[in-house]
Amino acid sequence: MANSSKVLVINGSYRDDGITDQAVEVSVAALNENGAETEIINLRDYPIEFCLNCRECTLQPGNSPGRCVLDDDMHALIEKIEAAQAFILASPTNFGSATAIYKRFMERLIAYAYWPWEQSYPKFRKADAAQKKAMLISSSAAPSWFGRWLFRTSKQLAMTAKTIGAEPVGTLFTGLANTEKHKRLPPKTVERARVLAAKLIST
Ligand SMILES: Cc1cc2nc3c(=O)[nH]c(=O)nc-3n(C[C@H](O)[C@H](O)[C@H](O)COP(=O)(O)O)c2cc1C
């Protein structure tokens, strides 16, 4: 991938400068050093509504995402997703899953499914032709081996990647994220963030 890659970062953490923000920050710094263009969307500051399950967007055929009936910033976010060549998808683990704001975003990605009423399951418009790349970032209070194995967060981030037409290049998972109030990202995690960021924009 050329150095002029556009990387869109979608962050589902609730906290400024928590473990997720720090992981995003070091990854973005590595991407910028390598000439990539980056944009960070912190979902905590980004006004999108819940999916209505009206299925209007899913009834529109074609490879492009269907248009949602809601008039909010998800339209702009889908345009950004379509324009990006790579993604960082990030969410801490809350109650064994991605955060509620991340799930709200993820559910709105149903626009990436073609799903007529007579069909019992959706066909994801981009899933068979994943041409983009995604780096996944998650964390938990539990140790990382346990968190990755037990919780759904990593799988939800991977499902998001597939939905928007991206193949995961790897997961940066920080365990024991709660041992101090202002926990800093461990040096080994910083190192791995830089490796994954390079992978994200390599050809
Ligand atoms: C409401 C809530 C639920 C949580 N549930 C879990 C959980 O099920 N398992 C776990 O290991 N950690 C859990 N945690 C800890 C978070 O995963 C941890 O604080 C987070 O990874 C830190 O991310 P941040 O620094 O970006 O906020 C929970 C935290 C909160 C606030």
What does this structure look like?
This protein has helices spanning 19-33, 74-83, 100-108, 144-150, 153-163, 187-200; strands spanning 6-11, 37-42, 86-94, 97-98, 113-114, 123-124, 132-139, 166-174. The N and C termini lie close together (4 Å). α1 (19-33) crosses α6. It has a single domain (6-200), classed as Flavodoxin domain (Rossmann fold, 3-Layer(aba) Sandwich), CATH 3.40.50.360. With 203 residues, the protein is α/β, with parallel strands linked by helices. β3 (86-94) and β4 form a beta hairpin. The protein contains six helices and eight strands, in the order βαβαββαβββααβα. The site of flavin mononucleotide has 17 residues, from α1 and β3.
CATH domain class name? Alpha Beta
Q: Note the overall shape.
A: globular
The named CATH superfamily? Flavodoxin domain
Could you spell the SSE succession in H and E letters?
EHEHEEHEEEHHEH
Helix content: 25-40%
The total tally of domains equals: 1
Number of helices: 6
From the helix content, strand content and strand pairing, which structural class follows? Answer: alpha/beta
Largest sheet: 6 strands, mixed
Low-confidence stretches: none
CATH architectural arrangement:
3-Layer(aba) Sandwich
Q: Strands, helices and their partners?
A:
Layout: E1 6-11, H1 19-33, E2 37-42, H2 74-83, E3 86-94, E4 97-98, H3 100-108, E5 113-114, E6 123-124, E7 132-139, H4 144-150, H5 153-163, E8 166-174, H6 187-200
Summarize it.
The chain is α/β, with parallel strands linked by helices and 203 residues long.
